[in-house]
Amino acid sequence: MRRDLEHLARAAGDIAERAAAAILAVYESDFAVEHKDDRSPLTAADLAAHRVIVDGLRALTPDLPVLSEESSDIAWSERREWSRYWLVDPLDGTREFVKRNGEFTVNIALVDDHRPVLGVVQVPVGGDLACAWEGGGAWLSVRGEKARHLGTRRRASPLVVAGSRSHGSEHETQLLARLGPCAKLPLGSSLKFIRIAAAEADLYLRLGPTSEWDTAAGQCVLEQAGGAVLDFAGEPFRYNTRESLLNPDFFAVGDRAADWSALLARP
């Protein structure tokens, strides 16, 4: 099983890098921005990466279904029968893409029995590639360097909190105040999970809507590095358990052994 996952992870990493090339071709042009029904942005880069990834995964594993943000209208009656499938965000952080700040990623996860057992997070600008699979640890490849093993750190003081550049709330500020001194690290997309996995941050708190394809790959990388992604009942995230593909509020931590009960005691 582990060797099978390692093979799939490496192949998914190659597919993510091909998708990144398609994204960068649009990034370097004068691209148009459309909006979906929920007002989230959509560009030609999202669609180009989607096609590269879906075609690549179907060639790699013809028997496994693919659920992508750009083809998510699959009936629950069909999806509920899936035990193993690919979960994809072709371009996580489209708002950051539109801002041209480089903080967007390609996310590919393999979900098995509701858990992400393989995760790939590729950063098109710069070329960093985080890759993890169950039992194999988490690894980060930086262009021109040998891949290094990722491992989280013990909770630091002040707490380094990776947070969204495009989302935030007063409630989030109130919750963080319970944890003592905090240093903010604003980041877009799944980079927040990677920074925690790389022992550069301690916490990512997210209140508000995200979708399952936003978190699965990053969750796998963080878990295999020693961290966790938890809902506010203190339970690890699970996938494809209901009709809605929206996530509940959550927090991601590097130090699983630390006391995070101040977050769990929400009013």
TrEMBL record:
<keyword id="KW-1003">Cell membrane</keyword>
<dbReference type="InterPro" id="IPR050725">
    <property type="entry name" value="CysQ/Inositol_MonoPase"/>
</dbReference>
<feature type="binding site">
    <location>
        <position position="214"/>
    </location>
    <ligand>
        <name>substrate</name>
    </ligand>
</feature>
<dbReference type="GO" id="GO:0046854">
    <property type="term" value="P:phosphatidylinositol phosphate biosynthetic process"/>
</dbReference>
<keyword id="KW-0997">Cell inner membrane</keyword>
<dbReference type="GO" id="GO:0000103">
    <property type="term" value="P:sulfate assimilation"/>
</dbReference>
<feature type="binding site">
    <location>
        <position position="69"/>
    </location>
    <ligand>
        <name>Mg(2+) 1</name>
    </ligand>
</feature>
<dbReference type="InterPro" id="IPR006240">
    <property type="entry name" value="CysQ"/>
</dbReference>
<feature type="binding site">
    <location>
        <position position="92"/>
    </location>
    <ligand>
        <name>Mg(2+) 2</name>
    </ligand>
</feature>
<feature type="binding site">
    <location>
        <position position="89"/>
    </location>
    <ligand>
        <name>Mg(2+) 2</name>
    </ligand>
</feature>
<keyword id="KW-0472">Membrane</keyword>
<keyword id="KW-0479">Metal-binding</keyword>
<protein>
    <recommendedName>
        <fullName>3'(2'),5'-bisphosphate nucleotidase CysQ</fullName>
        <ecNumber>3.1.3.7</ecNumber>
    </recommendedName>
</protein>
<keyword id="KW-0378">Hydrolase</keyword>
<feature type="binding site">
    <location>
        <position position="91"/>
    </location>
    <ligand>
        <name>Mg(2+) 1</name>
    </ligand>
</feature>
<dbReference type="InterPro" id="IPR020583">
    <property type="entry name" value="Inositol_monoP_metal-BS"/>
</dbReference>
<dbReference type="GO" id="GO:0008441">
    <property type="term" value="F:3'(2'),5'-bisphosphate nucleotidase activity"/>
</dbReference>
<dbReference type="InterPro" id="IPR020550">
    <property type="entry name" value="Inositol_monophosphatase_CS"/>
</dbReference>
<dbReference type="InterPro" id="IPR000760">
    <property type="entry name" value="Inositol_monophosphatase-like"/>
</dbReference>
<feature type="binding site">
    <location>
        <position position="91"/>
    </location>
    <ligand>
        <name>Mg(2+) 1</name>
    </ligand>
</feature>
<comment type="similarity">
    <text>Belongs to the inositol monophosphatase superfamily. CysQ family.</text>
</comment>
<feature type="binding site">
    <location>
        <position position="214"/>
    </location>
    <ligand>
        <name>Mg(2+) 1</name>
    </ligand>
</feature>
<comment type="function">
    <text>Converts adenosine-3',5'-bisphosphate (PAP) to AMP.</text>
</comment>
<dbReference type="Pfam" id="PF00459">
    <property type="entry name" value="Inositol_P"/>
</dbReference>
<dbReference type="GO" id="GO:0050427">
    <property type="term" value="P:3'-phosphoadenosine 5'-phosphosulfate metabolic process"/>
</dbReference>
<feature type="binding site">
    <location>
        <position position="69"/>
    </location>
    <ligand>
        <name>substrate</name>
    </ligand>
</feature>
<dbReference type="GO" id="GO:0000287">
    <property type="term" value="F:magnesium ion binding"/>
</dbReference>
<feature type="binding site">
    <location>
        <position position="214"/>
    </location>
    <ligand>
        <name>Mg(2+) 2</name>
    </ligand>
</feature>
<feature type="binding site">
    <location>
        <position position="89"/>
    </location>
    <ligand>
        <name>Mg(2+) 1</name>
    </ligand>
</feature>
<feature type="binding site">
    <location>
        <position position="89"/>
    </location>
    <ligand>
        <name>Mg(2+) 1</name>
    </ligand>
</feature>
<dbReference type="GO" id="GO:0005886">
    <property type="term" value="C:plasma membrane"/>
</dbReference>
<keyword id="KW-0460">Magnesium</keyword>
<feature type="binding site">
    <location>
        <begin position="91"/>
        <end position="94"/>
    </location>
    <ligand>
        <name>substrate</name>
    </ligand>
</feature>
<feature type="binding site">
    <location>
        <position position="69"/>
    </location>
    <ligand>
        <name>Mg(2+) 1</name>
    </ligand>
</feature>
<feature type="binding site">
    <location>
        <position position="92"/>
    </location>
    <ligand>
        <name>Mg(2+) 1</name>
    </ligand>
</feature>
